[in-house]
Design brief:
single chain; alpha+beta; FAD/NAD(P)-binding domain; 5-stranded antiparallel sheet; 3-stranded antiparallel sheet; flavoprotein; FAD/NAD-bd_sf; FAD; Amino_oxidase
Length: 356
């Protein structure tokens, strides 16, 4: 249990609760849920420019990372078909993957196919079920994809000024504006209460909020004097109690609740808002193909990691379909902006390709 681990090392409740947020981030779990300690380890085990456990902003926004990968690929002769939805994986008579068919009827032939989509989309939608072992299909259907995340992007006309560290008269960014700011994290019990509400189908009345202001370190993201604020919030269940849907009214009511919380820490925040973009779990599933809205393509619980990701006997990136590989967050070692699953899958595919 994460709570027990933090109790062993720290005395300060706000510090323990702030660290706990990285143990439940993207997970339908609380600080006292068994296995939550691993998720914290997952978020601090890497390094950035030699600094262990460090994170950074991507200049130009997260999309710039995808563009950088695309430019590196095209420089080596790769052809990228943007905005072309894949209909299904093409299979030969021997069941070997032979490419993909696009929804516009185009067929792209290849000796190998690597899927960065979730295991659910890859194996339940893009591959004929009769080509897969029944126990494998059942395992993929049973993957826990519950997600507590609602992402809210906000445009503001001035920098938030927090009671704990007010802005200077010139309104220039201060050091804390460049960091990740955690709110509603005064105690691990607050996080537990927020989680418990979601397990009963109710969005948290006092949501866990991780607030970042990327425009402070990347001014090109917003006009001068204005900023973009990224809010990563929990807990919001995919399915609401009583069969209620995430309609416009419900989505805005939750966002207003989040803004009310921020207002308590930074008076004037609500008055500074000039635009909002609310992405609930169903929105994340519909727009980005994340099953259940889960940013990791499936829970990072111990029963869904290592040799069991995405299923036992299929953690080596190969799938039951020869020539079809899984290279996204649903593969080992799971989610996060690190590229480990893709790199590992590429190396396995290259070894197999040399034998074809």
């Amino acid at each position: 249990l994460l709570g027990q681990i933090l109790d062993q090392w720290f005395e300060s409740e706000p510090l323990k609760a702030t660290l706990a947020t990285d143990a439940v981030i993207g997970a339908m779990a609380g600080p006292y849920t068994p296995g939550s300690g691993y998720v914290l380890l997952h978020h601090v085990m890497g390094e950035l420019e030699g600094r262990r456990g460090a994170w950074g902003y991507v200049a130009g926004g997260m999309g710039a990372l995808s563009q950088a990968i695309a430019h590196a690929a095209t420089a080596r002769g790769v052809h990228i078909f943007a905005e072309k939805a894949v209909c299904h994986v093409l299979l030969g008579r021997d069941g070997q993957a032979q490419g993909v068919a696009l929804q516009d009827g185009t067929e792209v032939r290849s000796k190998l196919v690597l899927s960065n989509a979730s295991p659910q989309i890859t194996f339940l939608e893009l591959v004929p079920q009769e080509q897969l072992p029944k126990d494998f299909v059942q395992r993929i259907r049973q993957v826990d994809t519950r997600s507590p995340v609602t992402k809210i992007n906000v445009a503001v006309d001035r920098l938030p000024s927090f009671l704990a560290a007010p802005n200077t008269r010139d309104g220039q960014p201060l050091p804390h504006h460049q960091c990740s700011i955690h709110l509603n994290c005064e105690s691990t019990n607050l996080l537990h209460q927020a989680f418990t509400e979601a397990t009963h189908g109710h969005p948290s009345s006092r949501p866990m909020i991780e607030l970042c202001i990327p425009s402070v370190v990347d001014p090109g993201l917003a006009p001068q004097g204005c900023h973009v604020v990224s809010l990563f919030t929990q807990y919001t269940p995919f399915m609401l109690a009583g069969g209620q849907s995430w309609d416009e009214q419900t989505r805005n009511a939750y966002a207003d609740r989040v803004f009310d919380c921020i207002e308590d820490y930074a008076p004037g925040f609500k008055a500074s808002i000039i635009g909002r973009d609310i992405l609930t779990p169903p929105d994340l599933e519909r727009i980005f193909g994340l099953p259940g809205g889960n940013i990791f393509h499936g829970g990072m619980s111990l029963d869904q990691l290592y040799f069991a990701r995405p299923a036992p006997f299929y953690s080596s990136y190969r799938s039951p379909v020869p020539g079809l590989y899984l290279c996204g967050s649903g593969a080992h070692p799971g989610g996060g902006v690190m590229g480990a699953a893709g790199r590992n899958a590429a190396q396995v595919a290259l070894r197999d390709f040399r034998r074809i």
